[in-house]
Design goal:
The chain starts with 14 loop residues before the first helix and ends with a helix. The longest helix is centred in the middle third of the chain and has 18 residues. It is built from four helices and no strands. It is globular, with a radius of gyration of 16 Å. By secondary structure, the chain is mostly helical. It is 62% helix and 0% strand. Helix 1 crosses helix 2.
Length: 106
């Protein structure tokens, strides 16, 4: 079978995240591109199957339990692999969870 896929570069991906992709793809015995494809397709599937997102009344983007859960799961997976998530990622996760919790208490 001929491989007609084109090479695709994405800028702005931290070295920690790239290493996490490589580590996970090696664990599953597949190429990094294949692992990324599966991860992206899974995220798309989850988003499509998710219930309606809660909409923030302040006009900010919608925040859903699935979003908050996915971010926390990602941080947990990175730490489980021995990769310390960047501080910026941790701060963004805290903001997302707080925003979701604020919506729940309104």
């Amino acid at each position: 079978m001929e491989d007609n896929t084109k090479t695709w570069g994405i800028r702005g991906i931290s070295a920690d995240v790239r290493q996490a992709v490589i580590t996970q793809s090696q664990k599953e015995g597949i190429k990094a591109g294949e692992w990324l494809t599966l991860a992206i397709l899974e995220k798309i599937r989850q988003d499509r199957n998710a219930g309606k997102a809660l909409v923030a009344t302040s006009g900010k983007p919608a925040v859903s339990a699935e979003d908050a859960s996915a971010v926390l799961a990602l941080l947990e997976r990175l730490q489980g692999m021995g990769i310390e998530p960047p501080d910026r990622m941790k701060r963004k996760a805290v903001i997302l969870v707080r925003r979701y919790m604020a919506l729940m208490y309104k």
